[in-house]
Amino acid sequence: MMTNLFSTFDPSTNIFNISMNWNSTFIGLLTIPSMFWLMSSRINILWNKMNLTLHNEFKTLLGPKSFNGTTFIFISVFIMMLFNNFMGLFPYIFTSTSHLALTFTIALPMWLSFMLFGWINHTNHMFAHLVPQGTPPALMSFMVLIETISNIIRPGTLAVRLAANMIAGHLLLTLLGNTGPTMTTNLISMLIIGQMMLLILESAVAMIQAYVFSILSTLYSSEVY
């Protein structure tokens, strides 16, 4: 039963289908008409307003010492995560963000680049982050160990948080869908209503998790300046 349940997250065993599954991470963006970015529709206006809001928020978190254009990196990450989270809610579409192979591949290089930049260019500042202000001298060595471990596990927590939330929602939808054939006609309508409510909840989770992933990446980046 558990094998069948989690098999919904497995790519196809066919080599061609495996490549197409992972290509679905980006291929959907190619279906957006090129004129969409030039049109002044309500959707486009709302999209531009959202990007501007994210830019201002990320700029505030990064501070005045950040490089120009840094916010666009995190906005791009947010858009990619949001798009893939939403695409995974549609039937028969591979949910790439539910796999650590994707989330960890994005989180680890970003974290490594932040750490290398900080330790090479702002070494004293990075050492100061290992000992929080006001730490008693007797606990300084212990706090250095805790802060070091906390920094090392950051890419793992970023990747696992996103993948686990995507898996949890899809498992609930799969469990409810599998109970349909065994239910009576009167209960099927309640099941459909429950699935619709859960789908709305998963849509909110898709947006929230994309935002959390990008905002935490921004906070980690702000610590190296």
Automatic annotation (TrEMBL):
Gene3D superfamilies: ATP synthase, F0 complex, subunit A
Keyword annotations: ATP synthesis, CF(0), Hydrogen ion transport, Ion transport, Membrane, Mitochondrion, Transmembrane, Transmembrane helix, Transport
Protein's UniProt keywords contain Transmembrane helix: yes
Transmembrane helix among keywords: yes
GO molecular function: proton-transporting ATP synthase activity, rotational mechanism
Family indicated by similarity: Belongs to the ATPase A chain family.
Domain of life of the source: Eukaryota
Pfam families found in the cross-reference section: ATP-synt_A
Protein's cellular compartments: Membrane; Mitochondrion inner membrane
Name used for this protein in its record: ATP synthase subunit a
PROSITE patterns: ATPASE_A (PS00449)
Source organism of this protein record: Chorthippus aethalinus
Membrane disposition: Multi-pass membrane protein
Cellular component per GO, a single term: proton-transporting ATP synthase complex
Residue spans crossing the bilayer: 20-40, 72-94, 100-120, 198-220
